[in-house]
C-alpha cells in the first residue's frame, strides 16, 4: 500500500479546467447563435468572439480507443477541447472556421455522422439492455442502432416540422426516463414473476417484497412449510419492482418479453407545457438482431409526423390538434383496451365531452 | 485467453450508417473480459434474454454508492466477464473535457478494466463498464489522484447534472454549471453515503427549453427563467421576416397566450401575459431574447414509473435569483430532506411522498407558503381537511 493519503469526497474536477479559452473569456456573455448547416452552429459573444460547434453522433457505448481518437481530433482542430451533450452526442468546439470541414471529413470517415441540430432527430438516449442490465426486457443498443440506421437521414438533414426526440428504456424502471419523449420505445414484461421459493427465505425480506408491489398483488404465503410469497396474477402489471427488492422474483422471460411504443411527450415549455408520452403500440416481439417490427412502427410514426404536422409543432402538439381518434386512424394502430388507463387516476384520460370528429 | 467468440447475430449490427456499438465492443475483442462479454451478448441475442444476475454489494471503502455490482449468470461459460461491475464517475459540469482529461480516464480504465465506457449514463455520470472486484480500489485511487470522484447510486443524492448553460448558450438565465458544481461539492456526503428513503436527483437547466429534461427526470429541477420584458430587436425581426419567417403564423399564432402582435414592421409583446415559453426566442434567436432580470423556477417531484407511477415535477418556487452561495436554497433542501427522511417510506421518491401526504401539508411542514403558481387549477372536490383556524372564523 502506498503511503499517500487516501483521497475521498473530492467531487468532480472543476469545469473551469476544461473550458476552451474563448468560453472562459465570454462566459455568460453570449449574444446569439445560428445553425450554419446541419451539425454545425456558431455562437457569437457580445465581444464579437465566435465559437463553432460541430456535433456528431456516438453510440453512447464507447471504447477507450474511440475516446483517444476524439482526443486526437480535438487536439488537431480544437486546441484540445470538446464536450458531450445530454443526448450522447460529442461536440467539438472550434475557433477557426477553416477547421470545420476537415474535422467533418475525419468524423465522417471514422463513422461518426455529423448532425442532430434543429428540426431533426437527435441521438436516442437509451439504457444498457442485455449489455449490462439484470432486469432488461430487451436489448437497448441493438434496437437503437436498428432504429437509427433507418432514421439516419433525419439526423443528417433538417426537413422535419420540428424537433423529434426519441428515447429508449429496456424496462419500466426507465433509467432513460423516456416518459416525456416524442417517441418512447420501452421494453416490457408481460407475465408475472416466477417465484423461486427456495431462494426467497435466503435472499429476501418478505415484508419488503410485499410492500414493494404498487397494486398489492404480492402477499406472504407458506410454501412447503417455508415462508415465501405468492402473487395474485390478475393484479400484476409486471413492473418488476418486487424483482428489484428480491432477486428470487424472476421477471425476465425470453418468450413473453417485448417492446411497446409511446408517443407525444416533451420536456420543453415551448408553446405547450411539458407532457407525458402516451401509449401507441402496446406490444411488439423481441426480434433480434434487427427488431424489424419496432423499426417499422417507429419509422411509420416519424413519416406520419413529417407529412402531417405544421411547422414547429412537436409530435404531441400535432396529435392533440388532430385528436387521438384520427391519430389511430392515420397510423393504422389498432385501438384496444390496453390503450385505456386503468391505474391510479385513470379517469383523467377519459373523454368527458361530445366534441368528437365524427369521421 | 479463450478462443475468439463467434458473434454472427451481433455482426449484423456492424452494418448500416449509424455508429455501431458492436464495433466499439470489438475494438477491445482482444481483452478477455470483452471477448467473453461479446460471447454472452451473442447468447442473449440467440435466446432473447439477458444474462446478468441481480446486483451484488460491491464498492470502495467508505462509500455506499458509485459502484453497481454486476455478475454473469453464465460464469462457467464466460468466466472472464463473471464479475463485470459498473463504476459511476461524477462528470465535470456541462460535460466539457480537454483531450488530456479524456486520455487520463482512458489510460486508467485500460490498466484496470474492460476499456468500455458510456459517455454518459442516463443521470449524467461517466460510466466505466466492466471492472473486477479487486480492481475497484486501485481504480478509485488512480481516479482520485487524477481529480475525479465517484457519482451516486442507490438511495442517495444522485450525481447532479446541468445543461451547457452560460458556457455556450445565450439563453441560460443563471450559471447552471456553477450551481451544479457548487451543490455537488456541498453534498458530497449525501452523494456518497446513501441515507435517504430513495434516490434524490438535482438537475440544473438554464431556460424553459430544459435541455437536461429536469422537469421529467429530477426530484428537484432548477429551470432558468426571467421576470422582466422579452428583449426584441425589431430590425432583427424584420430581417427574419424578409428571410422567410412568417411572423404572424410562426410566432404570433403559436404563442400560447397570444400576447404578441405583428403589424409588418413591429413585433409588440404584452409582457404581462408572457409565460416565458421560449417559442418566439427559439425561432428568432438573433432578434428576440430573454429579459435581464433572470433567475430560476424550482420544481419538485419528477420520476419514472417505479413505484407509484411516473410524475412530472410541479412548481415549488415560481422564481428565485440563483446566486451563490445559494444559502436559502440549501436551507430549503435541508428541510425537505429532514421531513422526507423521517416520514418517507422505503423506496418512496419525494414526488410520491408529496402525493401521499398532500402538497399543502408538505408546504406547511417545510414552512413554505402556498401560491397559485403551484397549481394548474384549485381543487374541484369538496373533501377538504379543514384546520381549526377556519371554523374559528380565521380565514376568508
How would you sum up this structure in a few lines?
Chain A has ten helices and 14 strands.
How many whole angstroms does the radius of gyration of chain A measure? 24 Å
Largest sheet data of chain A: 5 strands, antiparallel
Helix content of chain A: 25-40%
Would you identify the regions of chain A where 5 or more consecutive residues have pLDDT less than 50? none
CATH topology of the largest domain in chain B: Sulfite Reductase Hemoprotein, domain 1
- So what's the overall shape of chain B? globular
Determine the number of helices of chain B (DSSP H or I, runs of at least 4 residues). 15
User: How large, in whole angstroms, is the Cα Rg of chain B?
Assistant: 25 Å
The 3D shape of chain A can be described as globular
Q: What multimeric state do the chains show?
A: heterodimer
Total beta strands of chain B: 14
N-C termini distance of chain B: 79 Å
- Beta strands of chain A, count: 14
Name of the level-1 CATH class of the largest domain in chain B: Alpha Beta
Secondary-structure element string of chain A: HEEEEHEEHHEEEHHEEHEEEHHH
What distance separates the N and C termini of chain A?
Answer: 77 Å
How would you describe what is shown here?
The complex is a heterodimer of chains A (359) and B (396). Chain A is built from 10 helices and 14 strands. Chain A is α+β, with helices and mostly antiparallel strands. The longest helix of chain A is centred in the C-terminal third of the chain and has 17 residues, at 292-308. In chain A, helix 4 (141-156) packs parallel to helix 8. Chain A has a 5-stranded antiparallel beta sheet. Chain A has a 4-stranded mixed beta sheet with strand order 7-8-13-14, with helices on one face. Chain B is globular, with a radius of gyration of 25 Å. Chain B has helices at 8-12, 21-26, 32-47, 99-112, 136-145, 176-186, 188-192, 214-217, 234-242, 247-251, 279-283, 327-343, 350-357, 359-366, 388-391, and strands at residues 67-68, 85-89, 96-98, 116-119, 126-131, 161-162, 202-205, 220-226, 231-232, 260-262, 267-269, 288-289, 294-300, 314-320. The N and C termini of chain B lie far apart (79 Å). Chain B folds into 3 domains: 8-145, Alpha-Beta Plaits (2-Layer Sandwich); 161-225 and 295-374, Sulfite Reductase Hemoprotein, domain 1, CATH 3.30.413; 231-289, Alpha-Beta Plaits. In chain B, 32% of the residues lie in helices and 14% in strands. The mean pLDDT of chain B is 96. A 5-stranded mixed beta sheet of chain B has the order 6-7-8-13-14. In chain B, strands 1-2-5-4 form a 4-stranded antiparallel beta sheet, with no helix packed on it. A two-stranded antiparallel ribbon of chain B has the order 9-12. Chain B is built from 15 helices and 14 strands. Classes of the chains: A alpha+beta (359), B alpha+beta (396). Chains A and B meet through strand 1, strand 3, strand 4, helix 2 and strand 5 of A and helix 1, helix 2, helix 3, strand 3 and helix 4 of B. Strand 5 (81-84) of chain A pairs antiparallel with strand 3 (96-98) of chain B, so a sheet runs across the interface.
Amino acid at each position: 500500500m502506498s503511503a499517500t493519503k487516501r483521497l475521498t469526497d473530492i467531487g468532480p474536477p472543476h469545469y473551469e479546467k476544461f473550458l476552451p479559452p474563448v468560453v472562459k473569456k465570454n462566459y455568460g456573455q453570449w449574444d446569439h447563435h445560428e445553425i450554419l448547416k446541419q451539425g454545425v452552429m456558431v455562437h457569437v459573444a457580445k465581444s464579437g468572439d465566435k465559437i463553432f460547434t460541430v456535433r456528431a453522433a456516438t453510440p453512447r457505448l464507447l471504447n477507450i480507443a474511440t475516446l483517444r481518437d476524439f482526443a486526437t481530433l480535438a487536439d488537431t482542430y480544437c486546441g484540445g477541447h470538446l464536450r458531450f451533450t445530454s443526448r450522447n452526442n460529442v461536440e467539438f468546439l472550434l475557433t477557426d472556421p477553416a477547421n470545420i470541414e476537415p474535422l467533418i471529413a475525419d468524423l465522417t470517415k471514422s463513422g461518426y455522422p455529423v448532425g442532430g441540430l434543429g428540426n431533426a432527430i437527435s441521438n436516442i438516449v437509451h439504457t444498457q439492455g442485455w449489455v449490462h442490465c439484470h432486469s432488461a426486457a430487451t436489448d437497448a443498443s441493438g434496437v437503437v442502432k436498428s432504429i437509427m440506421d433507418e432514421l439516419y437521414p433525419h439526423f443528417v438533414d433538417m426537413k422535419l416540422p420540428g424537433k423529434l426526440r426519441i428515447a429508449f428504456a429496456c424496462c419500466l424502471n426507465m433509467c432513460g426516463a423516456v416518459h416525456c419523449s416524442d417517441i418512447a420505445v420501452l421494453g416490457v414484461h408481460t407475465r408475472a414473476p416466477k417465484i423461486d421459493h427456495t431462494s426467497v427465505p435466503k435472499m429476501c425480506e418478505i415484508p419488503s417484497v410485499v410492500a414493494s408491489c404498487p397494486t398489492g398483488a404480492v402477499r406472504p404465503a407458506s410454501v412447503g412449510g417455508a415462508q415465501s410469497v405468492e402473487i395474485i396474477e390478475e393484479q400484476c402489471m409486471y413492473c418488476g419492482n418486487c424483482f428489484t427488492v428480491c432477486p428470487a422474483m424472476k421477471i425476465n422471460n425470453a418468450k413473453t418479453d417485448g417492446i411497446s411504443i409511446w408517443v407525444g411527450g416533451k420536456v420543453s415549455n415551448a408553446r405547450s407545457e411539458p407532457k407525458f408520452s402516451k401509449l401507441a403500440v402496446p406490444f411488439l416481439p423481441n426480434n433480434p438482431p434487427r427488431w424489424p417490427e419496432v423499426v417499422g412502427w417507429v419509422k411509420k410514426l416519424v413519416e406520419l409526423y413529417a407529412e402531417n404536422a405544421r411547422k414547429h409543432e412537436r409530435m404531441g402538439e400535432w396529435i392533440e390538434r388532430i385528436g387521438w381518434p384520427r391519430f389511430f386512424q392515420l397510423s393504422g394502430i389498432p385501438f384496444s383496451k390496453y390503450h385505456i388507463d386503468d391505474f391510479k387516476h385513470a379517469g383523467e384520460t377519459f373523454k368527458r365531452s361530445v366534441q368528437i370528429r365524427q369521421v | 485467453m479463450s478462443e475468439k467468440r463467434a458473434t454472427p447475430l451481433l455482426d449484423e449490427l456492424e452494418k448500416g450508417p449509424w455508429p455501431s456499438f458492436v464495433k466499439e465492443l470489438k475494438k477491445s475483442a482482444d481483452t478477455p473480459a470483452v471477448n467473453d462479454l461479446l460471447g454472452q451478448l451473442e447468447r442473449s441475442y440467440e435466446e432473447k434474454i439477458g444474462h446478468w444476475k441481480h446486483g451484488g454489494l460491491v464498492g470502495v471503502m467508505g462509500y455506499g454508492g458509485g459502484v453497481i455490482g454486476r455478475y454473469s449468470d453464465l460464469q462457467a461459460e464466460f468466466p472472464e466477464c463473471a464479475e463485470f461491475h459498473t463504476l459511476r464517475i461524477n462528470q465535470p459540469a456541462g460535460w466539457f473535457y480537454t483531450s488530456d482529461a479524456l486520455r487520463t480516464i482512458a489510460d486508467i480504465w485500460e490498466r484496470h478494466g474492460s476499456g468500455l465506457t458510456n459517455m454518459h449514463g442516463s443521470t449524467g455520470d461517466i460510466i466505466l463498464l466492466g471492472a473486477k472486484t479487486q480492481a475497484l480500489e486501485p481504480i478509485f485511487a488512480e481516479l482520485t489522484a487524477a481529480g475525479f470522484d465517484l457519482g451516486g447510486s442507490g438511495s442517495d443524492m444522485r450525481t447532479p447534472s446541468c445543461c451547457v448553460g452560460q458556457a455556450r448558450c445565450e439563453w441560460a438565465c443563471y450559471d447552471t454549471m456553477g450551481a451544479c458544481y457548487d451543490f455537488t461539492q456541498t453534498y458530497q456526503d449525501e452523494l456518497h453515503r446513501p441515507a435517504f428513503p430513495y434516490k434524490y436527483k438535482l438537475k440544473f437547466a438554464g431556460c424553459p427549453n430544459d435541455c437536461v429534461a429536469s422537469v421529467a427526470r429530477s426530484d428537484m429541477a432548477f429551470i432558468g427563467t426571467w421576470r422582466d420584458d422579452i428583449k426584441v430587436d425589431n430590425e432583427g425581426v424584420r430581417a427574419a421576416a424578409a428571410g422567410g419567417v412568417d411572423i404572424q403564423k410562426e410566432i404570433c399564432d403559436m404563442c400560447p397566450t397570444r400576447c404578441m402582435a405583428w403589424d409588418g414592421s413591429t413585433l409588440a409583446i404584452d409582457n404581462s401575459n408572457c409565460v416565458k415559453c421560449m417559442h418566439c426566442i427559439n425561432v428568432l434567436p438573433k432578434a428576440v431574447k430573454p429579459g435581464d432580470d433572470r433567475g430560476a423556477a424550482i420544481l419538485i417531484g419528477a420520476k419514472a414509473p417505479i413505484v407509484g407511477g411516473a410524475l412530472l415535477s410541479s412548481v415549488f418556487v415560481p422564481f428565485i435569483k440563483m446566486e451563490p452561495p445559494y444559502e436559502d436554497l440549501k436551507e430549503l433542501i435541508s428541510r425537505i430532506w429532514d421531513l422526507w427522511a423521517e416520514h418517507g417510506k422505503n423506496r418512496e421518491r419525494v414526488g410520491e411522498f408529496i402525493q401521499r401526504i398532500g402538497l399543502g401539508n408538505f408546504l406547511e411542514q417545510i414552512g413554505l407558503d402556498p401560491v397559485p403558481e403551484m397549481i394548474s387549477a384549485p381543487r374541484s372536490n369538496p373533501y377538504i381537511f379543514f384546520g381549526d383556524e377556519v371554523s374559528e372564523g380565521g380565514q376568508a
